[in-house]
Write a structure and sequence with these properties.
The protein has helices at 23-40, 79-88, 90-99, 108-113, 133-140, 144-156, 164-173, 182-189, 197-207, 219-229, 261-274, 292-297, 308-313, 326-329, 334-340, and strands at 9-16, 46-53, 65-72, 102-107, 119-122, 210-218, 233-237, 239-242, 247-252, 282-286, 300-304, 316-318. It is of the alpha/beta class.
Length: 347
C-alpha cells in the first residue's frame, strides 16, 4: 500500500456567474464543487475550505464571483492538472451548465504569485479592442467580402493560406492603394476599446506590472492602443506605404519579424527576461488560436471571450462583459480594485 501523502495542496476555485446568485444557490453550487473535488481529484482528506465573494459590497454579502480556497492532504497540483480538471471533467462541466457559471481553477502557489507585479501581455483585436482591424480596413474600402473569404479559407487550412503569414500577405495585398488616412478614420469613428480595458491597464500600472500589446494586426493602431491605455510595449506587423502618394502598397515592410503565434510567445519570454520577471509571474490574455502559444508559455493564460476551440485549449477561460474581471482572476477583490482606481465602493 502506498504511503500516506503528508504534503498539502491548496487549490483556488474562482466561480464566475453572469448575475448575483442567492445565498441558497451559492451554498448548493459550492457544495457540488466540493463533491467534485473529493471524487475526481483523489484527495485523501478535505482539510478545510474558505469562501469569499470578490465583488461583494461588504463582508456580509454574496456576489457574482466567489473565491473558494480548498486545502487537501495530497501532493500539490499543477496548472495543467487544474486546467484538465475544469475542461475535461464531466462532473464539472455538468455543474457549470446546471448553474450557468464558469470555474477557473489555479494552484494556490500560482494564485499567490499574482500579488507580485509581473508582466501582462494582451492580444489587440477582439481583446483590448472590440474589432478585427483588418476586417475594418477592408470594410472601409469595400473589400470586406474578399478579405473575409481569405480569412475563412485560412481557418479551414486551405492552400495557399495554410499558415498565418500566407493569409496575412494575401489580405494585405488587397489593401494596395488604400489611403494612409484610413488609420485616422478608424481611430475616430470605428475602433472601440473593450469595456474594462482602460481600467485594467490602470490598475496593473498602479501595482507595478509591465504591460504589452502583442498583435497580429498593424503598428499604427497597436501603437495608438499602447499610448491610449498607457501600456509599456507594442508589437505588431508593419504595413508598407508610399510616402509620396500616401497610400498603402499592399505589402509588409521587409525586415521586421511577422507577429504570428510563435512570435507572440517569443516576445512574451523576451519581455519577461528583459524586465527580470520569471515566466511564472506573467499572464497572457487573448481570444484566438494564434494566442495559445503565448498563453501556454505564460504563468497563466486567459482566453477572453474566445472562440470555442480556444476556450477548450487555453489554461483558463473568462467570458465576461469587462476586461477588468481579469483582476478577479488575479485574486483582487472589488474594494482593492476600486481603491486602485481611486473610486469608493458604494453599498
Amino acid at each position: 500500500m502506498a504511503a500516506h501523502v503528508s504534503s498539502r495542496c491548496e487549490l483556488i476555485f474562482l466561480v464566475f456567474t453572469p448575475t448575483r446568485l442567492t445565498e441558497e444557490t451559492w451554498s448548493s453550487l459550492l457544495h457540488d464543487i466540493r463533491i467534485s473535488i473529493s471524487s475526481q481529484m483523489t484527495a485523501h482528506d478535505l482539510l478545510k475550505h474558505a469562501v469569499r465573494y470578490l465583488d461583494a459590497e461588504d463582508d456580509r454579502s454574496t456576489g457574482r464571483i466567489a473565491e473558494l480556497v480548498v486545502v487537501m492532504d495530497r501532493e500539490p497540483a499543477t496548472l495543467t492538472e487544474c486546467t484538465n480538471f475544469c475542461q475535461t471533467n464531466a462532473q464539472v462541466a455538468s455543474l457549470q451548465q446546471k448553474y450557468n457559471v464558469e470555474v477557473v481553477l489555479q494552484p494556490g502557489e500560482l494564485y499567490a504569485l499574482h500579488k507580485t507585479p509581473g508582466l501582462a501581455v494582451f492580444d489587440m483585436d477582439s481583446t483590448l479592442i472590440q474589432q478585427e482591424v483588418i476586417d475594418e480596413l477592408a470594410r472601409a474600402v469595400g473589400l470586406y467580402d474578399k478579405v473575409a473569404a481569405i480569412t475563412e479559407a485560412a481557418m479551414r487550412g486551405e492552400a495557399p493560406y495554410t499558415d498565418f503569414e500566407a493569409s496575412l500577405r494575401a489580405r494585405v495585398a488587397l489593401l494596395k492603394g488604400v489611403p494612409t488616412s484610413i488609420w485616422d478614420q478608424l481611430k475616430a469613428g470605428v475602433i472601440t476599446f473593450t469595456p474594462g480595458a482602460s481600467e485594467l491597464a490602470r490598475t496593473l500600472k498602479t501595482l507595478g506590472w509591465k504591460t504589452a500589446v502583442l498583435s497580429g494586426g498593424f503598428t499604427p493602431l497597436a501603437n495608438w492602443v499602447k499610448e491610449t491605455l498607457g501600456l509599456d510595449y507594442a508589437y505588431a506587423n508593419h504595413l508598407a506605404s508610399d510616402p509620396h502618394l500616401n497610400i498603402l502598397t499592399g505589402e509588409l515592410v521587409p525586415g521586421p519579424p511577422i507577429v504570428h503565434a510563435q512570435r507572440k510567445r517569443e516576445l512574451l519570454l523576451q519581455l519577461a527576461a528583459d524586465n527580470n520577471i520569471p515566466a511564472e509571474r506573467t499572464i497572457a490574455v487573448g481570444d484566438g488560436s494564434n494566442d495559445l502559444l503565448m498563453m501556454g508559455a505564460a504563468g497563466l493564460g486567459i482566453a477572453f471571450n474566445a472562440k470555442p476551440k480556444v476556450q477548450q485549449a487555453a489554461p483558463a477561460r473568462l467570458n465576461s462583459k469587462s476586461l477588468l474581471d481579469v483582476m478577479y482572476v488575479l485574486g483582487y477583490d472589488k474594494r482593492e480594485v476600486h481603491g486602485l482606481l481611486g473610486r469608493s465602493v458604494q453599498p
